[in-house]
Structures are given as structure tokens and as C-alpha cells.
Amino acid sequence: MLEKNPQRVCEEVGVNLTNKPQDLAYCDHILCTASTLVNDTLETLLDQRRPGASFSLIGPSGNELPDVLFELGVDSAGGVSYLGAPGSLRRDFAEAEYRSKTGRKYQIQPTHYPGIEALPKAC
Question: Within a 10 A sphere around the Cβ of 26, how many other Cβ atoms?
């Protein structure tokens, strides 16, 4: 596990903790939070993976069309789709409800995504 702030992670059997991106070269599958989009480290981490290793980007910071992510080499992208009437997410937060009641998690892979050009155009 790569973490810039290792003190945030509880040690677990079978989990190796590192703060060095080059250690990703030893991983078969990389599950990466979309916060790397916010802190501008995604491309650096993609460059550190070994050939053939899969790379999944997940998290609400990644709620966008994945075309650019796939072009960069991300193998799957996941986020949260917020459902319901307008204001339902705000109401859930105000009532301290868990967000999964309002949102639905999803994962998109290039083989199941037609690309932005094939999507219906909005009015």
C-alpha cells in the first residue's frame, strides 16, 4: 500500500506499506484513489507500475467521463452516482445519513464504455 501519510493506515497482515511510488513496480494490481487527480500525482503513479499490472482509479473525486483516464492508461474508473430528487444528497448530509442511501457506486472499463463521442448529446 502506497500512502503519503503512513500514520493514517492501520497495519494488517499481508499488506505492505510504503511511501515510495517506485514500489508500485512490485504490484500486480493497483487500486488508486481519485484524490490523485486533485493532488496531480496520477500520471506519476501510472509511470511507476510495471508492464501488465492493472490500474483502477476509484472514488468520488473521479466522477467524470473516463475518456482521458483511459487514454492515460487507467484500466477501470469508479465513482459515485447520486440518485434521487434534487436536494436529496444535501438533505442526507444535514440529517447525518450515510451517503450510500443517496449514491450508487459504479465502475467503468474501456470494454464496456463506448466513449464520449458515442454518448447521447444533451439538449
Answer: 11
